[in-house]
Amino acid sequence: MKKKLVLVLASIFVLSTAFMLAAAGEGQKGSQPSRNRPRANQGHIPPAPAARSNPHEARQPEHMPTGHVNDTPHVNHNQWFGHEAPNDQRFHLDHPYMNGHFAHVGPSFRYSVLRVDLNLHRFWLAGGFFFDVAAWDWPFCLDWCWDCGDDFVIYEDTDHIGWYLLYNIHTGIYVHVLYMGM
Predict the structure, then answer these.
(1) Within a 13 Å sphere around the CA of 166, how many CA atoms are in the beta-carbon half?
(2) What are the residues facing 112 on neighbouring strands?
(3) What digits encode the pLDDT tens for the residues 23-80?
(4) How far apart are CA 151 and CA 112, in angstroms?
(5) Measured CA angle at 84 (ends 78, 87), to 5 deg
(6) Are 167 and 113 in contact (CB under 8 A)?
(7) d(CA 53, CA 30)
(8) Can you tell me the distance from the alpha carbon of 11 to that of 66, in angstroms, rounded to the nearest whole number?
(9) Is residue 25 helix, strand or coil?
């Protein structure tokens, strides 16, 4: 009888300890997203950029209240600034989506970069998907913390068919990328 009582009490102790440890782990998981909350764009992930109807429309800079002009590719107040004109020849692809179409785009999908090759301007996401950053955009993202967690969102570039936009949720800057497959 004493052995059964000790066994029951030990089981209760083990289960309650496991429950408390699981609850503590849940609390840590809950704090994880707050660490990766977007810092740019007033703390929000922006909606996809709208396609422009005028192919000759120039790059739109952000005019700051201080009188300064910010012409870099970035998002502020859900508005996409610094995006090149739709007819910019650097974005012409003879075979758009040559390596397939990357389907998991938009604000509902956040990604961690698993690996980056700084020399080739290339990065890999979970599942083996990899992208090349446009050479002319590389200076905008060279100093990004590529391996810090779920920090990136990918959008289809509505102005440049076959290209995607990689948006950094912490800096608010975006760059053009090509999907290279898996």
Answers:
(1) 28
(2) 150
(3) 333 333 333 344 678 999 999 999 999 999 898 888 999 999 999 999 999 999 999 9
(4) 6
(5) 130
(6) no
(7) 43
(8) 67
(9) helix
Name the residue type at position 55. Answer: P
Q: In this structure, what token pair is assigned to residue 37? A: 């909350």
142: Cβ contacts below 8 Å, ≥ 6 apart: 118
Q: Which pLDDT score, from 0 to 100, does residue 19 have?
A: 39
Q: Is the dihedral of CA 112, 116, 121, 124 positive or negative?
A: negative
Report the C-alpha gap between 110 and 126 in whole angstroms: 11
Integer-rounded Cα Rg, in Å, for the chain is 23
Indicate if the alpha-carbon torsion angle 40, 42, 45, 47 is positive or negative: negative
Enumerate residues 6+ apart whose C-beta is below 8 A from 58.
85
Distance CA 157, CA 160 (A): 5
The residue type found at 40 is A
Beta strands in the chain (DSSP E): 62-63, 69-70, 74-76, 79-81, 111-117, 122-125, 130-133, 150-156, 164-168, 174-181
**Cα–Cα distance measured from residue 55 to residue 23, given in angstroms and rounded to the nearest whole number:** 55
Which residues, at least 6 apart from 149, have a Cβ–Cβ distance to it below 8 Å?
Answer: 35, 36, 112
